[in-house]
Design brief:
Layout: E1 3-14, E2 17-28, E3 32-36, H1 43-51, E4 58-63, E5 66-67, H2 73-79, E6 80-83, H3 95-100, H4 115-127, H5 143-155, E7 161-165, H6 173-190, E8 193-197, H7 201-207, E9 210-215, E10 218-224, H8 225-228, H9 231-238, E11 242-246, E12 253-257, H10 262-265, E13 272-276, H11 283-291, E14 295-302, H12 306-314, E15 317-321, H13 329-340, E16 344-347, H14 357-361, E17 370-374, H15 385-395, E18 400-402, H16 404-413
The protein binds adenosine-5'-diphosphate and magnesium ion.
Magnesium ion is lined by residues 43-44, 85, 165-166.
Length: 414
């Protein structure tokens, strides 16, 4: 693959502080690469270094294999066009005048646009579907229309590489999609390489070939969407709880942000509880223990079970079994380990069947832990095996029987 843009051990800073630290990456010709990262991680700074707005302290940037610092403005403009994060249209320029600015690097001093320039301006407007807005004042256009005009100005340069910094900022979802689809079209149909700073992780996941994650001025990850849009990659960078799932309509990976750092703010009370649940019977109980500062573990749960999903969203340790499968010996042993390290074990009002009978049998292995059992509406589909175990535990006073309400009341007293 042929490279078009390369950062090589680049360090960039303002005043005393280094913002970008030893950053390296390569964008290849024809790719659609997105750069994501939290606010302030240095994304715009990287873009400013390409345009020369900020100098680089160490390392080099190469454009088409040439040292960026040695390129003249015109040479650089022949290869790459940049759409900055903030574009101030302080005058009521007409759309065509904004786009004409894209031709300025190619004009000699005092020279005005030629026939050829006007042709390219119209062509650029056409590419973004805004030719009909040619004579309109930029200040009177909608956000989406304005953004497309600004991209047209970049296209009037006939760039091989289009660099955009948060092009969908301030746009609502319809215009966001329009702008993303436009970039996709430019990439696919005209072979323009796209390097896009995006704040919307899901748009990056949906439209990019590759995603770079920047965190505090350093590269946290660089890879294909499936390698980057992962909980373990994004959670520590964005410091939020999130889950990654496949969007059923687009088939693209997407993140669902959950609560912001709630688990981090939660004060631990140093106690551990293991909850045996399933099918939603644990939902309120899991969350209540979690919020009270218990270290909660759950198991064994089938992957996809609603209690499993809740545990995932709260970042709770869960011992799992494959969907619809009986609990294996391995999962049983792992569950036993979790139970042995718990101060308290809770069996929720879960139906007992063949697939989860081992979750009941395991209760006979308890030693010193307190065991709370909730039995209100649940059924036993094991021909009485499950109920028999539970009843003998209660009869031998190895467990305390509670209603769900009583359990929650006890918890709330703490
Ligand atoms: P991002 O685009 O990822 O949100 P920026 O590159 O804009 O991040 O900013 C990265 C860091 O550099 C921030 O801490 C910001 O405050 C700082 N910074 C940006 N521009 C300047 C500047 N001109 N002078 C001093 N610090 C700056
Ligand atoms: Mg920025």
């Amino acid at each position: 693959m042929e490279e078009i843009l390369r950062f090589e051990n680049v360090t960039i800073g303002y005043n005393e502080k280094d913002i970008i630290k030893d950053f390296s990456c390569t964008v290849n010709r024809g790719e659609f690469v997105s750069l994501i990262g939290p606010n302030g991680s240095g994304k715009s700074t990287l873009i400013h270094a390409i345009t020369g707005i900020v100098g680089i302290r160490k390392g080099k940037i190469y454009i088409n294999g040439k040292d960026n610092e040695k390129l003249s403005a015109k040479e650089r403009a022949q290869i790459t066009a940049v759409v900055p994060q903030t574009f101030q249209a302080s005058f009521a320029f007409k759309a065509k005048e904004i786009v004409a600015m894209g031709r300025h690097p190619f004009l000699k001093r005092m020279q005005s646009e030629t026939e050829e320039d006007y042709k390219l301006i119209d062509q650029a407007l056409e590419q973004t579907g805004t030719l009909h807005l040619r004579e309109r004042k930029i200040t009177q256009l909608s956000g989406g229309e304005r953004q497309r005009i600004i991209i047209s100005a970049a296209l009037a340069q006939q760039p091989q590489l289009l660099i955009v910094d948060e092009p969908t900022n301030h746009l609502d979802i319809q215009y966001t999609l329009e702008v993303m689809q436009l970039m996709q079209k430019l990439n696919r149909e005209q072979g323009i390489t796209i390097f896009a700073v995006l704040h919307d992780i899901n748009m990056a996941a949906r439209f990019s070939d590759r995603i770079l994650v920047l965190n505090e001025g350093q590269k946290a990850r660089d890879g294909r969407v499936s390698e980057v849009i992962r909980e373990e990659v994004l959670k520590p960078v964005y410091k939020i709880d999130l889950v990654v799932r496949e969007n059923p309509l687009t088939g693209a990976a997407e993140i669902v942000p959950l609560r912001s750092n709630k688990s981090a703010q939660r004060k631990s009370n140093g106690k551990r509880v293991h909850i045996i649940c399933g099918g939603g019977s644990g939902s309120y109980i899991i969350e209540a223990f979690h919020n009270k500062g218990y270290e909660v573990s759950c198991g064994v749960l089938n992957v996809g079970d609603s209690d499993y999903e809740l545990c995932r969203s709260l970042g709770i340790k869960t011992i799992t079994e494959k969907p619809y499968c009986e609990i294996s010996g391995e999962a049983f042993d792992e569950n036993l380990l979790a139970i042995e390290s718990a101060d308290l074990v809770v069996l929720t009002d879960v139906d007992i069947g063949r697939s989860n009978l081992k979750n009941i049998e395991i209760l006979e292995h308890l030693s010193s832990q307190n065991l709370y059992i909730v039995r209100e509406n649940a059924s036993d589909y094991t021909g009485g095996i499950g109920d028999k175990i539970i009843n003998s535990l209660l009869a031998e006073k190895k467990a305390i029987s509670l209603t769900k309400k009583e359990l929650i009341e006890i918890l709330n007293k703490y």
